[in-house]
Design goal:
- The chain is built from four helices and no strands.
- It is mainly alpha-helical.
- It has two domains: about 55 residues, Arc Repressor Mutant, subunit A (Orthogonal Bundle); about 35 residues.
- The radius of gyration is 24 Å and the shape is elongated.
- It starts with 10 loop residues before the first helix and ends with a helix.
């Protein structure tokens, strides 16, 4: 049983690999062979760079600005839902209190 560790590549490495394909005209297959990465990985890097531009490859644990905004909105939604649930329980409690 082999235990493979996941290889990590720096942002600079990925940008240079994409540059080989986009600016120097190498195919993904040829560039991937030269760099020692799988062609599908390089193709994914190229697609990501095309869609995200300069914001691509944010790094380990870093979020894209759009992802960061989504996380912030999800936290706010959870907080507002919790407040709503508390208010519903309070209304139900005071509606049952005998006068």
């Amino acid at each position: 049983m082999s235990t493979r560790t996941r290889r990590k590549f720096s942002k600079e490495f990925k940008l240079e690999a994409v540059k080989l394909v986009r600016e120097h005209g190498l195919t993904c297959l040829r560039a991937a062979q030269d760099l020692g990465v799988h062609p599908s990985v390089l193709a994914r890097w190229v697609r990501e760079h095309e869609s995200e531009g300069n914001e691509s490859f944010p790094g380990s644990g870093s979020l894209l600005p759009s992802d960061d905004k989504v996380k912030q909105l999800e936290r706010e939604l959870r907080r507002v839902q919790m407040e709503r649930d508390i208010l519903k329980k309070a209304i139900a409690y005071f509606a049952e209190v005998p006068k």
